[in-house]
Every structure is written in structure tokens, then in C-alpha cells.
């Protein structure tokens, strides 16, 4: 039996009405969230945890399953259980662009352009942008990264007139919201729809997900203060890396 690492200190309350597996899950989650167990740390095996905590392996397995469902650990066949990369918490009540949001969290935004084109909008795009289907749009599809890890695929469609003369490099590499502000168009409000779905083959490959892995799909229309539509965006976020949070008040 291997000794538990010094950072892995758990205590259970035998008199508590809380089931033992939930106590274990809660204690491990606190170690993860406090940074005591950083990303990539290998957890002790089920056998070692069972022996040290005097619990059945079934109970330990239940605790690990809870942690996995919460996205706090990942279980790798033949390798063990590891602390998962931290999730990106995205408040739905705050309007920010991807680059700004990542920097605010201490992460380095990055990515690459999957496609860039200018042309006539589709009927859905024209409707969401509130413009004539005869007027051109810029359509930019990008793989978005946080600290070098792919976390989202984002397709932004904007009226071409808003970006007339803008350097293509700025469109492809920089923050669209920052560029719009520089040109006098400040994002003021947005309407966003969110749904859970499965990744298709291309999306799974780009986001490093298992086939049919979970993604959070969004559609967002953004307006400026005068009511003009600035952007229609469709995105797919990794379900194992993102939490979308809504604050409710009475």
C-alpha cells in the first residue's frame, strides 16, 4: 500500500448524516479549489484511498464519480485519476469579448483562423443582423484558445460597413470588440441563447474532445447603445472546460 502524499489530507466525520462518499468528494474538491491539488495532480488509487480512509472501494468509487461529474477530475483508463484543468466560469450577465474575458482571468488568449470571407449573408444572418441580404458581411471563424488549449470555436458575422478599411490582420488576430470600440461602435447589450449538444467530428477534433463529446452551443446578437446590430455570433464551447453562470435576484 502506497503512502498518501502530504498534500492529500482527508478527515471524515463518522457521526455526520452526510454519506461518506459525499464527505470524501467534498474534501477532495476543497483541496482542488484551494490549489493544494493543482491541475494534473494524480490522485491516490481507489485501493490506497480505501485502505487509508477505512472505506469500501465502492464508496471511494462513488466519490470519484461525483468529482468527475463536477468536472474536477478526469479518469484515464490504465493511468488513474487526475485533477482536471480548471473550468472557465462565464457569467451570462456580463458582456465581454473572448480576449478580454481570458485576460481578466489571468489566461493568455490565442487561437487561429479557420476561415475568413466577405460576401452576402445567409437568410438567418441577414435576419439577425437586421440588414438587407444584398449588403455584404464579414464572416470570421476562429478556434479560440486559453493558455494554448483549445476551448471554443467561434463564428462571428458582422456588417462589412463596420469594418471597412480595417487591416485583415486585426480582424483575424485581435479582439473584435476592441476593434469595434476603436472605430466608434461600442457593444452595449446582447441576447444570447445557450443549449447543450454533441460535437460533430470536426468540432471534436478541433477541441480535442472524444467523438460526440459534450459542447455548449451559443448564438448571440450584440447591439450598440443606439440599437444598431454589431455582431451575430455562433460558438461551441468545450463542455468540460466551461461553466455558464446566471445570477438571479428577487
TrEMBL record:
InterPro entries: Bact_HTH_transcr_reg (IPR050679), Chorismate_lyase_/UTRA_dom_sf (IPR028978), Tscrpt_reg_HTH_GntR (IPR000524), UTRA (IPR011663), WH-like_DNA-bd_sf (IPR036388), WH_DNA-bd_sf (IPR036390)
Molecular function per GO: DNA binding; DNA-binding transcription factor activity
Domain of life: Bacteria
GO biological process, one term: negative regulation of DNA-templated transcription
Claim: Cytoplasm is one of the keywords in the record: no
Keyword Phosphoprotein in annotation: no
Residues annotated as transmembrane: none
Short name of any one Pfam family annotated for the protein: GntR
SUPFAM superfamilies xrefs: Chorismate lyase-like, Winged helix' DNA-binding domain
Keywords per UniProt: DNA-binding, Transcription, Transcription regulation
Residue span, HTH gntR-type domain: 18-86
PANTHER family, alphabetized: MANNOSYL-D-GLYCERATE TRANSPORT/METABOLISM SYSTEM REPRESSOR MNGR-RELATED, MANNOSYL-D-GLYCERATE TRANSPORT_METABOLISM SYSTEM REPRESSOR MNGR-RELATED
Name of the molecule in the record: GntR family transcriptional regulator
Organism expressing this protein natively: Deinococcus yavapaiensis KR-236
Taxonomic path: Bacteria, Thermotogati, Deinococcota, Deinococci, Deinococcales
